[in-house]
């Protein structure tokens, strides 16, 4: 529906309504605007909650890997024990 055919006409010229122009809307249009805003916010919240849950789940599945220290040899040195020594 275009702004020319919508009830409230000039108030819908700008989709971003400020508080004053929102108060000047007809009650039915004001309620429809509030409902659409709430429904859109609800969908966005559910989407973000789902993404957050997926990220949390992926984070829990990451296994811990010890990092090497800089300058340390990657191979373990051979342990030699002297006979009879501690």
Describe this structure in words.
The chain is built from two helices and no strands. It is mainly α and 86 residues long. The radius of gyration is 32 Å and the shape is rod-shaped.
Number of strands: 0
Low-confidence stretches: none
Q: Radius of gyration from the CA trace?
A: 32 Å
Please give the oligomerization state of what you see: single chain
Biggest pleated sheet: none
Shape: rod-shaped
Helix proportion of residues, in percent? 40-55%
Helix tally equals: 2
Query: What is the beta-strand fraction?
Result: under 5%
User: Structural class given helices, strands, pairing?
Assistant: mainly alpha
Write down the secondary-structure element order: HH
Distance between the termini: 89 Å
Average predicted confidence as pLDDT: 77
Write a concise synopsis of the structure shown.
The protein is mostly helical and 86 residues long. The chain has helices at 19-23, 27-61.
What's the arrangement of secondary structure elements?
Blueprint: H1 19-23, H2 27-61
Main traits of this protein?
86 residues, 0% strand, rod-shaped, mainly alpha
């Amino acid at each position: 529906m275009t702004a020319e055919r919508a009830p409230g006409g000039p108030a819908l010229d700008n989709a971003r309504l400020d508080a004053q122009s929102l108060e000047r809307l007809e009650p039915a249009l004001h309620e429809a605007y509030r409902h659409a805003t709430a429904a859109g916010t609800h969908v966005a919240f559910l989407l973000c909650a789902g993404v957050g849950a997926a990220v949390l789940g992926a984070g829990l599945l990451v296994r811990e890997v010890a990092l090497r220290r800089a300058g340390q040899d990657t191979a373990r040195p051979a342990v030699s024990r002297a006979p009879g020594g501690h």
